[in-house]
Design the sequence.
């Protein structure tokens, strides 16, 4: 037949009805909610588990390091001539730094650099060495060095940096026994010179030493007394992702757990905890507005990093938590205040903190999937590209064979959009998908079987070819009596088989 | 090229005639038929002339189709030159240009192609037959004719053959199935495909031979020829592809909708790859489609009856038999009623005419397809037979 076709003087044309499977899918509860957020109850029904980090106040809020460590301006009081490499100047000093009330005795740097910038106004180059004597990195104090070119002769200066990641600091070198660094600066005549170097009266050298981008890995001492106030709102995507219009649930268990990873005592008060969805609903609970003491975390043994946080759990079961979640919140705001070391330095300088740790607030909620729901939305955008061939499809029909094993009715819409996400056409079947047959216990005893036929006219078929994306939106509602709650079980599935009947014009 | 070939043959004929200074026996024939036993003229006309084939035409056609159907075309232009000789043997030359196309298809396959699979849901579409054979080639032979006695002569000749096009397709072992709920399609594609390749006009060359015998018995003349005995070697770009593939399509299993487009692309690639008939290319040889022709003539007073038989060894081709009673109208004109059966078609009949151009040169034109033209017979059948004969032999008895 193909040969005959090829031999014809002119191409004939006809149309054929092609029926073909398009796609099939099987959606279970775990397609709506991740497996990790589902637990099975003793009766095998499911519970939706949400764990949400509400806030995390880390130690860098009140423990940090000064950037500028050392600045010196040396002026030669007399003129002199020295051989190359001669130590011209050496200065050792212990410097105390004010860290805003914190009195730190130990510190380990996670990452950062020690930067040196030096200008030499002598007629020849000079060599410097800067060491932090109370530091330890790879078994020795750190030493930064470099050759400072003569600025009058070359117009250049020294700029160098040293990676101090992993450096340990003993901050007890000053008479204060805290917050201090001991450093030594040495200046040598140019060791590379071939003749004696003449240093004139009033020649000078300027040296600036700084820490850059320092991240503290660990610190110990007294952190001082700090007031903390935090007001913020966090996105709460769990329910928004389900696209629910209406939700009726019960027996929700919710806790707010405060974890203190600081080796310092703290008190805190939750002034407000509110959800923002359909409206704004603040949680009403005995814990709201109540001052709560958090004891310090413990570390055993010291400097091991084996930290056990102190934990305080607040139970909100008796609150208006059902209304809180039925409000379908998409964000949660909080107003939190507290004090670190409210009783002062009762640890005698043994507060500690490790990198990334601090005060953490976590919400844990367990929602039994015994709910009444409207508008539980399955939505996805399918990128597609149908290549136009010589065979032009004039019209088509989509058949959806749906086996609904959920106690939910459903409605479908398909939106066709162009590349710029403009909706060009929509395909909306008339029929709804009935829920599976539910018994008196609320369990589905038999899935409903539905065949939906969606006829696409030539215009819609043209759009189907022209568009680049299809947004499939399925809205699910619990069936039966309005507001009737149903349980969800792992074996509930919505099976969809899509086949197409395309009237193809062949030329 | 073809016209050059024919022109060369005619030149050769006159050259030989001039050399011997005698008149040879020359016969030029042209057999042309486009037929199907089951496919209608109307449907073929719509198909061939590029019209839109509407639904009623398709279903009307399907109603008349048999389980196995064939459609075919053959065109055989042939020239023979037999030089006269006082000896028992003489020189014999022949040349031909032949174009053949034969396709076989099942009723289900036709329905699948022209109406789609929607009407075949739940049915196994058996594609037996699903064949196509297509040849276009020219032959040139030289040999001798041997006069065994006064009433019988044999001839044998051989020579080169050039091939212009060739394709052969046989997927008769394939089948197609659409499940009842249309949730799966399966296509078992099992068959062989060969096509002469390359861009050159001549796709292959080889040799061909023919054997013939003819004689007279009182007022009864007969002749049998066996030709197209030979082999052609095609060039290295010839496609020779064997397929034994099962395509099973259940749609796209969607586990990750964001990957939908990529999955579909992959499915389509697999599908296209499975359908691709571009197999390995290699030097391949094929046999010529053997041709047997026979004719006999008997005269009963003014009534003369010619019987012609032509058979190509091709799938679906049955011996083409034509009986042609004729009656002289005048001394130079004879009318006939050629009646035919076979080839790719069935029974048909129509008018024929024979006339003398001048002494010893006569022409014959038969058109046994009137039943189709007049829509008395729905089946596709267009047959034209032409013949020019220049004869000086003793048994030259035209008109």
Sequence:
């Amino acid at each position: 037949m193909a040969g005959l076709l090829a031999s014809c003087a002119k191409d004939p044309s006809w149309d054929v009805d092609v029926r073909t499977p398009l796609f099939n899918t099987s959606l279970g509860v775990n397609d709506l909610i991740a497996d990790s957020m589902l637990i099975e109850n003793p009766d095998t029904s499911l519970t939706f588990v949400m764990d949400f980090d509400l806030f995390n106040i880390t130690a860098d809020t009140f423990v940090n390091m000064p950037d500028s460590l050392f600045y010196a301006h040396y002026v030669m009081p007399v003129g002199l001539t020295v051989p190359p490499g001669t130590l011209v100047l050496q200065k050792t000093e212990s410097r105390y730094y004010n860290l805003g009330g914190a009195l730190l005795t130990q510190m380990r740097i996670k990452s950062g650099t020690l930067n040196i910038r030096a200008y030499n106004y002598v007629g020849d180059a000079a060599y410097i060495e800067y060491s932090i004597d109370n530091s330890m990195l790879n078994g020795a104090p750190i030493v930064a060095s470099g050759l400072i070119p003569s600025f009058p002769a070359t117009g250049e200066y020294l700029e160098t940096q040293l990676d101090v990641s992993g450096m340990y600091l003993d901050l007890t070198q000053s008479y204060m026994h805290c917050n201090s660094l001991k450093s030594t600066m040495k200046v040598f005549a140019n060791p590379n010179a071939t003749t004696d170097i003449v240093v004139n009266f009033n020649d000078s050298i300027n040296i600036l030493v700084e820490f850059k981008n320092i991240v503290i890995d660990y610190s110990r001492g007294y952190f001082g007394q700090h007031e903390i106030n935090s007001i913020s709102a966090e996105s709460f995507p769990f329910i928004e992702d389900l696209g629910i219009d209406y939700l009726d649930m019960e027996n929700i268990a919710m806790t707010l757990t405060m974890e203190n990873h600081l080796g310092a005592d703290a008190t805190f008060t939750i002034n407000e905890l509110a959800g923002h969805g359909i409206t704004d609903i603040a949680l009403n609970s005995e814990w709201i507005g109540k001052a709560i003491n958090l004891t310090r975390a413990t570390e055993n043994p010291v400097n091991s990093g084996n930290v056990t946080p102190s934990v305080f759990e607040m139970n909100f079961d008796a609150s208006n938590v059902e209304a809180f979640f039925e409000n379908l919140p998409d964000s949660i705001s909080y107003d939190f205040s507290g004090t670190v070391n409210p009783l002062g330095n009762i640890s005698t300088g043994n507060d500690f903190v490790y990198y990334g740790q601090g005060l953490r607030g976590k919400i844990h909620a367990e929602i039994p999937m015994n709910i009444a729901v409207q508008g539980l939305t399955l939505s996805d955008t399918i990128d597609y590209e149908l290549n136009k061939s010589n065979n032009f499809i004039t019209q088509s029909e989509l058949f959806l064979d749906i086996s609904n094993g959920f106690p939910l009715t459903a409605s479908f819409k398909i939106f066709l959009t162009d590349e710029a996400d403009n909706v060009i056409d929509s395909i909306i079947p008339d029929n709804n998908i009935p829920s599976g047959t539910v018994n008196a216990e609320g369990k589905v005893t038999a899935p409903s079987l539905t065949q939906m036929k969606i006829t696409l006219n030539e215009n819609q078929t043209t759009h189907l070819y022209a568009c680049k994306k299809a947004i499939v939106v399925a809205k699910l509602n619990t069936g039966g009596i309005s507001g009737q709650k149903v349980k969800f079980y792992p074996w509930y599935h919505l099976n969809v088989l899509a086949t197409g009947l395309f009237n193809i014009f062949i030329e | 090229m073809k016209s050059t070939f024919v022109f060369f043959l005619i030149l050769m004929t006159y050259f030989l005639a001039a050399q011997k200074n005698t008149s040879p026996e020359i016969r030029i024939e042209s057999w042309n038929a486009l037929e199907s036993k089951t496919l209608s003229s109307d449907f073929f006309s719509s198909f061939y002339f590029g019209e839109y084939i509407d639904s009623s035409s398709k279903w009307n056609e399907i109603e008349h189709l048999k389980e196995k159907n064939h459609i075919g075309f053959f065109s055989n232009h042939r020239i023979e030159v037999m030089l006269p000789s006082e000896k028992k043997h003489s020189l014999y030359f022949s040349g031909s240009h032949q174009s053949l196309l034969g396709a076989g298809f099942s009723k289900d396959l036709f329905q699948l192609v022209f109406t789609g699979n929607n009407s075949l849901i739940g049915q196994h579409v058996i594609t037996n037959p699903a064949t196509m054979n297509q040849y276009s080639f020219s032959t040139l032979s030289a040999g001798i004719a041997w006069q065994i006695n006064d009433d019988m002569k044999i001839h044998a000749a051989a020579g080169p053959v050039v091939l212009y096009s060739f394709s052969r397709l046989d997927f008769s072992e394939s089948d197609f199935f659409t499940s009842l709920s249309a949730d799966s399609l399966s296509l078992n594609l099992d068959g062989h495909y060969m096509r002469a390749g390359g861009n050159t006009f001549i796709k292959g060359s080889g040799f061909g031979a023919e054997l013939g015998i003819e004689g007279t018995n009182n007022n009864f003349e007969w002749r049998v020829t066996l030709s197209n005995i030979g082999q052609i070697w095609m060039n290295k770009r010839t496609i020779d592809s064997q397929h034994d593939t099962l395509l099973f399509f259940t749609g796209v299993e969607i586990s990750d909708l964001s990957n939908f487009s990529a999955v579909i692309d992959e499915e389509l690639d697999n599908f296209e790859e499975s359908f691709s008939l571009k197999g390995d290319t290699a030097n391949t040889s094929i046999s010529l489609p053997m041709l047997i022709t026979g004719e006999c003539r008997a005269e009963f007073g003014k009534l003369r009856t010619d019987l012609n038989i032509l058979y190509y060894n091709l799938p679906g081709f049955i011996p083409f038999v034509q009986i042609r009673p004729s009656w002289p109208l005048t001394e130079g004109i004879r009318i006939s009623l050629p009646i035919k059966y076979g080839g790719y078609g069935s029974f048909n009949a129509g008018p024929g005419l024979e006339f003398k151009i001048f002494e010893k040169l006569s022409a014959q034109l038969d058109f046994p397809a009137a039943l189709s033209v007049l829509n008395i017979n729905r089946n596709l059948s267009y047959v034209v037979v032409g013949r020019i004969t220049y004869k000086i032999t003793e048994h030259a008895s035209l008109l």
